[in-house]
Amino acid sequence: MKHALLAAALAAMPAAIFLASPAAAQSQPLEQACITVAKNFLLVPSIKTGIVQSFPELDPPGARLTYSTRADAKPTDFNNEIECEFDKATAPFNLLRFCISETCYGPNEQDQENRRRYQEVKALMDRQKK
After folding, report:
1. At 88, phi and psi to the nearest 5?
2. Three-class SS string for the chain?
3. Which positions make up the signal peptide (predicted)?
């Protein structure tokens, strides 16, 4: 009986509920800022995004996404990931740290090259504010 009621309730729900992404976007500006970080770091004019998630309510706020640099990217091509952290959830964003795949870049990273890459991307992001 319970299964029949559940099946009837599911059948009555709009199809759009089942087609929605697993985590709806919460902050388009945070997501765009993280996409900009990825493009600046990867030295590409554009990237294709797969799953994009943002977390304006966390401290620090941030976003993460899967991406591909291929113009003709297929769903299986979105296996690269970037995570970005910012000082606040509203523009202008101040980049605190970002991680691509397993490597993180920030002002306090022990690896000098990783610290330098962070400084470069942060400088590019800061220039866009002006």
Report:
1. -155, 165
2. CHHHHHHHHHHHCCHHHHHCCCCCCCCHHHHHHHHHHHHHHHCCCCCEEEEEEEECCCCCCEEEEEEECCCCCCHHHCCEEEEEEECCCCCCCCEEEEEECCEEECCCCCCHHHHHHHHHHHHHHHHHHC
3. 1-25
The C-alpha atoms of residue 64 and residue 120 are separated, in whole angstroms, by 20
pLDDT in tens, 33-81: 999 999 999 999 999 999 999 999 999 999 999 999 998 999 888 999 9
Residues 6+ away with beta carbon under 8 Å from 126: none
Two tokens, residue 69: 């640099």
Strands 62-68 and 48-55 turn out to be: antiparallel
Distance CA 97, CA 104 (A): 7
Higher pLDDT pick, 95 / 11? 95
- Compute the CA torsion angle 44, 121, 125, 96 (nearest 10 deg): 130
Q: Are 93 and 102 in contact (CB under 8 A)?
A: no
